[in-house]
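Order emerges. As here.
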Amino acid sequence: MQKNIILAGVGGQGILSIAAVIDWAALNGGLEIRQAEVHGMSQRGGAVQSHLRIADHELYADLIALGTADLILSVEPLEALRYLPYLAPGGRVVTSLEPFINMPGYPSMEEILAELGKTDRPVLVHSAELAREAGSARASNMVMLGAAARFTGIEPERLEEAIEALFRAKGEEIVDINIRAFRMGQQLSNS
């Protein structure tokens, strides 16, 4: 088994928390993981992306080559488009539909959706709405992780254990909200 995953978004959207959950779950499942990340120029609003490579054998490189990503998991729709050249044939795109408009000339959602529609059955998620239903708009990143869970190669139960471990210090209510958000996202890609 080997999965190449690109996480994309802008600063403040929880990309690094998604990466931490996947890392924890993979390592505790006995898998090899390599990760490389790039942070934007500012803490909030700058582009953030992470390359995650997961396998049941030794990995030698951190970066994902063009055309070899099995999954692009994006918490911002334009950022999903930015990484489409990395997508492998048959790879999947899971993206939030809530734009973070941080530049002039941001394309219309119709243009973005037309490009995303050229990929193999993209999973398009209203993550902020579902996160609010789960108990906190801040949990939209866990909604996105849930929507992408079936494409990660990691059992959902192990991802939930990782969410619990990552958020434990913030209290049981935060853990519950994030697991609820994860499960709501899961329902989207399982239906």
About this structure: The radius of gyration is 15 Å. The chain has one domain: 2-190.
